[in-house]
Write a structure and sequence with these properties.
Blueprint (H helix, E strand, L loop, with lengths): L1 E5 L7 H15 L4 E5 L5 H14 L3 H20 L2 H28 L4 H25 L4 E4 L6 E2 L10 H12 L5 E5 L2 E4 L4 E3 L4 H13 L3 E6 L20 E3 H9 L11 H5 L3 E6 L8 E4 L11 E14 L9 H11 L4 E6 L5 E7 H14 L1 H5 L5 E14 L9 H11 L6 E4 L5 E7 L3 H13 L4
Parallel strand pairs: 1-2, 1-8, 2-5, 3-5, 4-6, 8-10, 9-11
Antiparallel strand pairs: 6-7, 10-11, 12-14, 12-15, 13-14, 15-17, 16-17
Helix pairs in contact: 2-3, 2-4, 2-5, 3-4, 4-5, 6-7, 10-11, 13-14
Length: 462
C-alpha cells in the first residue's frame, strides 16, 4: 500500500493533471495506492481573497468565483470529451453556486468567521478531487472521490484544527479498506464531531496523507512536489546545494522548522508513529529517487546534514545588572510575550544572567517590545533593567545534523569559517541534543554565510 500526495503546483492545470495521473497509474499497476490532492495552485489564495472581499462588501468576490469557474471549465474541456464533460461540469457548477451563496451571506453580514473561512477554503480541494476522480474513471482507471470530512475528525480550532486520532483512524480504515477503484481523497480538510468543516493548517494535505498512511499501515507515504527532494541548502542562494538521499526524522523536523519548506514537521508525526518512511518526490522529474525520511535513515558521511534559515527576524536584548540572581524575571518575560501572541524562535542567555536575548518574527517585534516595556516598567524605572534593545533586519541560520552529536570541533569549525569570511554573529543557541547550532546574523550576510558554511562542511559530501 502506498499513499501518494500531490500538491497544488503538481495539478495546476489539465496538462499537469494528465502528467500526475500517468505517475499514479504506473504506481497503481504494481500495488494498491491512495491518492491525496491539494487544490489547484492559486485557488486557495483566490478563495481567501474572495472571502476577504465579501466581508468588506466588495463585489470583487463574484469575479474571483467566476475566475475559478473559468479555470475549471478550461481543465474540463482539455481532459474530457464533450459528452463526458457534462456531468462533471454540472457537479462543479453546483459546488461553485454553493460557494457563491456562502460568500453572498458573508457580504450581507459583513463578517467572515474562522469557521466560515474554513468552509470557503474547502471548495478548492473538493472541486479538484471531483475533477480528478472523474477523469481517472472515464479514462479507464476506476476511481472514487472521497471527501476527507467523512473520515478525519478534529476539534473546532478553525484554521489549524487538531486531529482526534482515536476517532479518525477507524473511520479511515472503514472508508478506504476494500474500496473499489483508486480512492481520490481531498487533502487539507476535515470536520468536527458535529460535522462542521475544519482545515488542518499549513501543509494540511501532507498531514492528510500521513494520517491515511498511518491508519492503513502503508509501506510508504510519498509527497510529490516541484523539487527533487530535501536539499542541503537553499539552491537559490547556494548553487552547490544538492539533494539529500535520505535523512532521519529528527533532521527533517529541524530542517523543516528552520525554513526548508518541503514538508512541515507536524505533518510527519502520524507516519513517524507507525514507522512509515516518507519520500519527497518531484512530479517534474519522477525518475529521480527523491529523499527518504525515516527513523533509521543514515545522514551520510558529512558532519552535518544540511543548512536552513529563517529570514525577516528581529532580536530583542534585555540587559540589566538587577536581573542577576533575581528569580522570576525570565518567567515574566516569556509570559508577557505569550500574552501578546509573540512566538519566540530562539533564546540565548549568558551564565552571568546580565542579559537575555530572544529572536522573533520581524512583524511581531514592535508588539513584543511594547509588551515587555509594560511588564517590566518597574524594573526599567528603578534601573534594575537598563535597556530593552531591538535589532531588526536579521536572519537565523541553523546547521543541522545527526552526525554532529558527540563530534568534537563542529562549533570551532563553524565559527572559524564565519570569522574568516568576516561575518559577525550576534547570538548563538545550541540544544543539548547537539543536532542543531543556530546563530543570528545581519540579513545582508545571508548568502555569504550559507555558502561559507556549505563549503566548510558539505562541498565534498555529494
Amino acid at each position: 500500500m502506498k499513499v501518494m500526495k500531490f500538491g497544488g503546483s503538481s495539478v495546476k492545470d489539465a496538462e499537469k493533471i494528465q502528467h500526475v495521473i500517468d505517475i499514479a497509474r504506473r504506481a497503481a499497476s504494481s500495488e494498491p495506492v491512495v491518492l491525496v490532492f491539494s487544490a489547484m495552485k492559486g485557488i486557495t489564495d483566490m478563495l481567501i481573497d474572495a472571502a476577504t472581499s465579501a466581508e468588506k462588501g466588495d463585489p470583487a468576490y463574484r469575479r474571483l468565483v467566476e475566475e475559478i469557474r473559468s479555470r475549471q471549465k478550461e481543465a474540463i474541456a482539455a481532459l474530457f470529451s464533450r459528452k463526458e464533460s457534462e456531468s462533471t461540469a454540472k457537479e462543479i457548477d453546483t459546488l461553485l453556486d454553493e460557494l457563491s451563496d456562502i460568500l453572498h451571506g458573508v457580504e450581507l453580514v459583513r463578517e467572515c468567521s474562522a469557521r466560515t473561512l474554513d468552509m470557503v477554503m474547502s471548495f478548492g480541494e473538493r472541486i479538484n478531487c471531483r475533477l480528478i476522480a472523474e477523469y481517472l474513471s472515464v479514462s479507464g482507471t476506476p476511481a472514487q472521490f472521497v471527501d476527507a470530512r467523512s473520515m478525519i475528525v478534529t476539534d473546532s480550532s478553525h484554521g489549524s484544527a487538531k486531529v482526534d486520532f482515536e476517532a479518525t483512524y477507524p473511520l479511515i480504515r472503514q472508508t478506504l479498506s476494500g474500496m473499489e477503484g483508486i480512492p481520490v481523497v481531498t487533502g487539507f480538510i476535515a470536520r468536527t464531531e458535529k460535522g462542521v468543516t475544519t482545515t488542518l493548517g499549513r501543509n494540511g494535505s501532507d498531514y492528510t496523507a500521513s494520517l491515511i498512511g498511518a491508519a492503513l499501515d502503508a509501506d510508504r507515504v510519498e509527497i510529490w512536489t516541484d523539487v527533487d527532494g530535501v536539499l542541503s541548502a537553499d539552491p537559490r542562494l547556494v548553487q552547490s546545494a544538492f539533494v539529500l538521499p535520505e535523512i532521519s526524522i529528527e533532521d527533517a523536523m529541524e530542517l523543516s522548522y528552520f525554513g526548508a519548506e518541503v514538508i512541515h514537521p507536524y505533518t510527519m508525526i502520524p507516519a513517524v508513529d507507525r514507522n512509515i518512511a516518507i519520500y519527497i518526490k518531484n512530479t517534474l522529474n519522477p525518475a529521480a529517487p527523491g529523499t527518504r525520511i525515516a527513523a533509521e535513515a543514515q545522514g551520510g558521511s558529512a558532519p552535518i546534514t544540511g543548512i536552513a534559515s529563517i529570514e525577516n527576524v528581529s532580536l530583542i536584548n534585555i540587559e540589566g545588572g538587577g536581573m542577576l540572581g533575581h528569580p522570576g524575571v525570565a518567567s515574566r518575560v516569556f509570559s508577557a510575550l505569550a500574552d501578546a501572541s509573540v512566538n519566540i524562535i530562539m533564546i540565548s542567555q549568558a551564565s552571568s544572567e546580565h542579559s537575555i536575548c530572544m529572536v522573533c518574527r520581524e512583524k511581531e517585534a514592535s508588539r513584543a517590545v511594547a509588551a515587555l516595556k509594560t511588564e517590566l516598567a518597574d524594573e526599567l524605572r528603578y534601573r534594575m533593567i537598563q535597556n530593552i534593545e531591538l535589532v531588526k533586519e536579521l536572519e537565523i541560520i541553523a546547521v543541522v545534523g545527526e552526525n554532529m552529536r558527540g563530534t568534537p570541533g563542529i562549533s570551532g569549525r563553524l565559527f572559524s569559517a564565519l570569522g574568516q569570511a568576516g561575518i559577525n554573529v550576534l547570538a548563538i543557541a545550541q540544544g543539548s541534543s547537539e543536532r542543531n547550532i543556530s546563530f543570528v546574523i545581519h540579513r545582508d550576510d545571508r548568502a555569504s554565510a550559507l555558502n561559507v558554511v556549505h563549503k566548510a562542511f558539505l562541498e565534498d559530501a555529494e
